[in-house]
């Protein structure tokens, strides 16, 4: 892979975070962003994802992982730095514009309409391109057959894991070039967490480029091609999933007993 041979250690210097980024689908350069005036949550964050990759963003609670995804999706103001989608500057574009340009986003919580059926949730996902509903519904139900079997069931009556599946499928209805997933395994039982990781991998194997933020760092590093460790709004380490999972510093700081729980 681009990050070099498996034997190479995870790296910390900034230039390495964008090594191999030339033909990235999506790329962030030195993002500085925050919610309140004078308080930056992202302090110069870089990342990129290539076509067909699944990348993971891990890091402690409050590191700014969700903020990074929200900044890419136009939900948090970027104070400086750039976001490029296929080389085009999309910094601070509004979410609905980003959806039409090919960015899909699944927030951590409240990501389905509980009173609507599965099918209606997917229709909401396709509202910008209703003519494509049939084709996209075929794509997502090929991935997750339960969506077709249970299309008339209300999303509110589904288990947490099934709801994540609907949320991901809804975001896939727009045929995104890149899908942003915010902690899809959060709040689920270990068994259902595992299912969500398998589903994210299935989505990626179906050709969708994925950026996944995860609190279950070990599991995330097992499935991602490359990963970034975010700490205090900055990239602390990057490398292949395996490099990060085997790096003594990463293990000590981010995958220790606390991180395992
Ligand atoms: N809407 C908000 N307004 C102000 N501060 C926020 C808001 N959302 C998150 N923060 C702060 O931003 C920091 C990073 O949060 P977040 O991006 O959610 O971290 P993570 O996803 O890594 O756990 C935290 O200190 C959090 O308190
Ligand atoms: Mg978060």
From TrEMBL:
Keywords, ordered alphabetically: Amino-acid transport, ATP-binding, Nucleotide-binding, Transport
SMART domains the record matches: AAA
UniProt keyword ATP-binding present: yes
Entry keyword annotation includes Transcription regulation: no
Molecular-function annotations in GO: ATP binding; ATP hydrolysis activity; branched-chain amino acid transmembrane transporter activity
GO BP: L-amino acid transport
Gene3D superfamilies noted in UniProt: P-loop containing nucleotide triphosphate hydrolases
Every ABC transporter domain range: 26-257
Superkingdom classification of source: Bacteria
Homology family: Belongs to the ABC transporter superfamily.
PANTHER family found in the cross-reference section: HIGH-AFFINITY BRANCHED-CHAIN AMINO ACID TRANSPORT ATP-BINDING PROTEIN LIVF
Record-given protein name: ABC transporter ATP-binding protein
Organism: Nonomuraea deserti
């Amino acid at each position: 892979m681009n990050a070099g041979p498996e034997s190479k250690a995870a790296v910390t210097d900034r230039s390495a975070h964008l090594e191999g980024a030339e033909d990235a689908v999506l790329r962030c350069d030195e993002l500085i962003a925050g919610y309140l005036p004078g308080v930056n949550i992202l302090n110069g964050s870089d990342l990129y994802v290539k076509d067909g990759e699944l990348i993971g963003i891990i890091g402690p609670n409050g590191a700014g992982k969700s903020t990074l995804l929200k900044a890419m999706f136009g939900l948090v103001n970027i104070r400086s730095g750039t976001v490029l989608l296929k080389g085009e500057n999309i910094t601070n574009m509004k979410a609905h514009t980003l959806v039409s340009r090919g960015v899909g986003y699944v927030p951590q919580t409240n990501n389905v309409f509980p009173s609507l059926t599965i099918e209606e949730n997917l229709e909401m996902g396709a509202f910008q391109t209703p003519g494509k509903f049939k084709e996209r519904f075929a794509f997502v139900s090929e991935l997750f057959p339960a969506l077709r079997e249970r299309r008339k069931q209300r999303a509110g009556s589904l288990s947490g894991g099934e709801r994540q599946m609907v949320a991901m499928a809804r975001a896939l209805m727009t045929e995104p070039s890149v899908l942003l997933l915010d902690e899809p395994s959060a709040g689920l039982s270990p068994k259902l967490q595992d299912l969500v990781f398998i589903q994210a991998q299935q989505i990626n194997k179906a050709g969708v480029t994925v950026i996944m933020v995860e609190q279950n760092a070990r599991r995330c590093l097992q499935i991602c091609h490359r990963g970034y460790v975010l700490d205090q709004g900055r990239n602390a380490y990057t490398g292949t999933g395996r490099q990060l999972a085997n790096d003594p510093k990463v293990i000590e700081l981010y995958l220790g007993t606390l991180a395992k729980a």
